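Thread: "does anyone have the structure for this chain?"

Original post by V.I.:
We have the sequence but no experimental structure in hand. Need at least a predicted one for the grant figures.
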Amino acid sequence: RSKSTRRGGTSAHGAYCMELVRKHDHENYLCSLLLPDDGRRTAFAVRALNVELAQIQDVVSRPDIGLMRLQFWTDALERIYKGSAPEQPVAQELAAVIRSRKLSKHWLSRLIESRKESDKAHTSLEEAEEYAERSVSPVLYLTLQSMGVQDLNCDHVASHVGKLQGLTNLIRGVPVNASRGRVYVPLQLLAKHKVSQESLARGKADTREVIYELACAAHQHLEKRYVLTCRSSPDEAGCLAETVD
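Reply from O.Q.:
Generated one for you, tokens below.
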């Protein structure tokens, strides 16, 4: 039976992507289920790509191997847009939604390129927000694009939600990353609150003030999201269902 055979309206590659997101990004899995049909498939395909990219750092032993894996996805994207996708489930599903929804290569490339910076500490809060804009917001831009939404207000919502999610991921990743000797909290915030990278990496730092400041910044994006969503039409608001809290 062909891997592209549909069962219950979902292709085998689509089902693979959904399961990958369900296992590794469960919150966004649940949110994506709320989307209309034409956006849901794209959301799962793109989020599955994001899972593949996010896992690279955790499974490789050397940075150069990580870059090689990222290069695979860069090359895969080139092949997809030339009509010869690799025989890999996520790549095959991406090829299908790119063909059917005419998705922008720019945003997919940005997702891949952003992961080359994922092991670097941010200097400032603004830099952390910019990274979130590059690594999270493109998923939302592509989902909106797949539903035919061309609205500046919706794009602004997606931008703020991307920054909100990025900062939230940064906050809750502090303990795990510290246990692995990784520090991604903006260095200016650490200096401002007199927290050393060494103490943070050892798990002995009092990070309450640092975390509070990050949380306040995330909450500002949440408030802006609420204001902007209220300006959207009912149909556009439905397309933004993935961004519910």
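V.I.: this helps a lot. The chain is about 70% helix and 0% strand.
O.Q.: and The chain has two domains: 10-119, 120-245.
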